[in-house]
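$ run holo --ligand "succinic acid" --emit tokens
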Amino acid sequence: MTIDTTHINQQMTHFDGHQEIWLFGYGSLIWKADFPYLERRPAHIRGWVRRFWQGSHDHRGTPEAPGRVATLVRAPGAICHGMAYRITPETLGPLDVREKNGYLRVVTELHFDDAHEDSRASESAEGLVYLATEDNAAFLGDAPHDAIARQIAMAQGASGPNRDYLLNLAAALERLGHHDEHVVSLARHLDGKIAG
Ligand code: SIN
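-- output --
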């Protein structure tokens, strides 16, 4: 598979004819919503865990010195918390470009965490998520947390230092009231590696 997945994603027809689409964000899409959206709601998806197993050649690293960013890995019974955005189909174009380094659009069921606050609010919806599977060219996979944190401490890309991605995600999950042990552990390992 080529690294640039823009073209593959633009062939998706699943939501053709829909005026609105729910998008689930679990990585930078939680804390960097630099795209237009109609509504956002905290949500989770089932059967996936968040892992810093995807290489970043663009936003948080370079092809020579890739950073590490989040993707989802199948884990039956697991829950991954994040943020859902109700967007119009026009927003998918820029999102495909943003997520082009190996991420594919995948259809998923979203469960809203705030449904109990308003009895008229829907509890779940079909939506999409961008995820990078292990057969994409930028996939790095598992490694000891100390090594992942060292790589994150060193890497830098067009969107800034890789460490900001991890620390912003850790802070956003904390604000949402969710403990993700993988993210917390990496942030802890990173702490001792940031110079100055
Ligand atoms: C996401 O946040 O949902 C996808 C991965 C990323 O852009 O960090």
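-- notes --
The chain has six helices and seven strands.
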